[in-house]
Every structure is written in C-alpha cells, then in structure tokens.
Amino acid sequence: MSTLARALIDLGAIAHNTTLLARAAGSAGLMAVVKANGFGHGAPQVARTAVANGAAWLGVTSLREALELREAGITAPILMWLYTPLDDLDAALLNDVDVSVNSAEALESLAAAAERTSRVAAVHLKADTGLSRAGATAAEWPHLVTVAAKLQTAGLIRVRGVWSHLAHAEDPGDPGLHRQLDVFATARAQAAEAGIEPALIHLANSAALLQIPQTHFDLVRPGVALYGVEPVPGRSFGLRPAMTLEARVILTKRVGPGTGVSYGPDHIVDRETTLALVPIGFADGVPRRVSGQARVSVHGTRCPIVGRVAMDQMVVDVGNLPVSAGDRVVLFGSGQDGEPTVADWAQWAGTNAHEILTGIGTRVERVHVGEDVRITSWRTAT
Ligand SMILES: *Cc1c(COP(=O)(O)O)cnc(C)c1O
C-alpha cells in the first residue's frame, strides 16, 4: 500500500504509559481518556490496549465517540461528558454509557430516556469548581443534587460519580488549585447531605495524577500522558511518546543561491543545497506557522523546513545529505533517535502537544504496531 504520510502508533508505548499511570494512581482506578480519536492515535486501538494494561474506565466527549467504542466490541465502562440538551440519549442508556450531568434539566431528560428504554441512567454529576465550562456552579449545585436524589429514589437514575475538572494542575502550589479543591469538598458534602453517596469521586487529569495525590480520589482521568507527552513542564516521569509522524521524500532538487522556496517566497536559498519535497502539509496537521522554526529528521539529521508550509506539501533543506526520492522523513517521534518530539512541535507552533496530536488529519494513515515490532523501514512495514 502506498501512502504519502503516516502515523505509526506504538501500542507498546500506550501499554507502558498505562501501566506507569496506573501505578502512580495508587488505589484509584484509571480512566483512559480516548476522546478525539484517542488524541489522534485511534480510539479503539488505544482503548483496547489501555484496558488490557490496567485502565478500568474509558472517557470520551461525545455520544458518537462512545458508540464507536461499543461498535468496536469494547465493553469497559465509558463516561461521556458533552451533549446538547436536545440530544436523544436513549442510545447512551441502551449501550451502557455513563453520562455526565451539568443541570437539573439534563437529569430530567435522562430520566425520560430511562423511562423510554426501561434502563437506569448512570450519571456522574459535574461540579464547576472554577473552570467555568461544564458543571453546575456552587449556586446551582444544591438543587442539582436534590433533583438527583429524588430521581435516584424513583429508580430512574443512579448517581455513579461526582466529578470536576481542574483549570491548572501543572503547579501544585497554585492558589486556584486549592480553591477548586475547597469548592469540590463542599460539593461532595452537599451531595452526601442530599443522600447521594457515589462510588466514584474523580478530578485529576494527567498532570494532577502524576504530582498531586490529594486529587486522586477514586478515579483519575489521564489523557495526554497516556500518549507519552510529559504533562508537567520541566519534569519527566518516564512516559514514552506513542506516535511517530513520518512521510517520504517524493522529489529532490539541487538549487543555488537566490532560489525562492514556496509561496511568497518567504525563503530565499543562500547557498548551493538540496531541497527535498515532502508530501505533508497543513491539511495533515503540520501547523503553517512553524515555517522557519521546525526541523525534521532525515537520515538521523535534523533539517529545517524552509518556506511556507502548504496545504499538502512542504520543502526541507537537506544541505548536502545524500537524500533521494523515497527516503524517510520523521517529523516527530519518541526522540530516541534524535528526532524531534511532539513537545518540540508544540513549542515551535506556540501551542500544546494536545493540539498538535489531535490536529493530525484523516489523510494521514494510522498504522498500529505492537510492543515487539520495531519498524525501521517504510517498505517492510506495510
Ligand atoms: C481531556 C480531558 C482530560 C484529560 O486531560 P489531560 O490534561 O490530557 O490529561 C480529563 N478530563 C476531562 C474532563 C477532559 O476533558
């Protein structure tokens, strides 16, 4: 099979990261966050690997993502956390998908879905503890838990979780973090007063899981760390990046000083050199703004992307390296062979690794490899 660019997903790295995170979670369970197609790594493959290596739960954003996992035959518990009040949630109940709840109105529509489907809706009540996104505010919370207790007594819903999300877990001394923990404690106490004693209290994302044990409670929800990105700037916990993004050269040319490269041109060659055309561009998730900063690995040497990144292609200045059509170009990988990592790309693009990983386009083929398979050559791999 021929493909212009592809992402190799090392499921061995996912397994390693899951094991490491499960250990760091101590007695708390692990929810592998596989939203956005497993941060671009392939949700079913990541989910299966995570579950086989210690994840008890899977977390996704939408109903569609949850159903995709069920269709792939995955039976582990799933929590989904974003939908509109108008969504028909019968499919969630019929497929054993737990639903996050922000409001009393959402509880009523879940109760209606429970009546229609003859199922009990398993819900996780979400408290807004300071992020001002999803969740009920401190003012709304007492009403939410009162309605939840009533519907639970009526046998229509079961409150399985009470949860929230942190605004900033990178700095354990952050005062905002401690304010959030206080608001969360109050929310839990009010839920208990209303007669709600959920099995699962959960709050921590990757950074909180790895460095703030008092956020662990019953379940932790790592996302980016599962994929091998270190979540705390300046600290390394031994995670292994799972994705290698690569393409192969389709054309090279020898050019002299004064040659303009790509649109504009923004880049003028200042010496005799070899330019390599690489068929991956911003439609595939290479940020347009990295031109002039980003480097890619060619034969183990870091070479600059020159000129503007186009929709489908970009140009790499490989100097005097003996590069020819068909040669492999690594945009990012584990870093073990000197290639850039996704963290380098995030820095070049002025964003986070989450945005780079989830921005990899659908045209890029995902190839999953197991723990023991080490791909050295493009041709032997597929
Ligand atoms: C995305 C997400 C996570 C995972 O966050 P990371 O910082 O990637 O670990 C956890 N919880 C919720 C609610 C999320 O939306």
From TrEMBL:
Its EC number is 5.1.1.1. Catalyzes the interconversion of L-alanine and D-alanine. May also act on other amino acids. PANTHER family: ALANINE RACEMASE (PTHR30511), ALANINE RACEMASE, CATABOLIC-RELATED (PTHR30511:SF0). GO terms for molecular function: alanine racemase activity. It catalyses: L-alanine = D-alanine. The active site is at residues 35, 263. Its cofactor is pyridoxal 5'-phosphate. It comes from Actinoplanes sandaracinus. Keywords: Isomerase, Pyridoxal phosphate. This is Alanine racemase. Belongs to the alanine racemase family. It comes from the Bacteria. Residues 242-369 form the Alanine racemase C-terminal domain. The modification N6-(pyridoxal phosphate)lysine is found at residue 35. It is an enzyme of class 5 (isomerase).
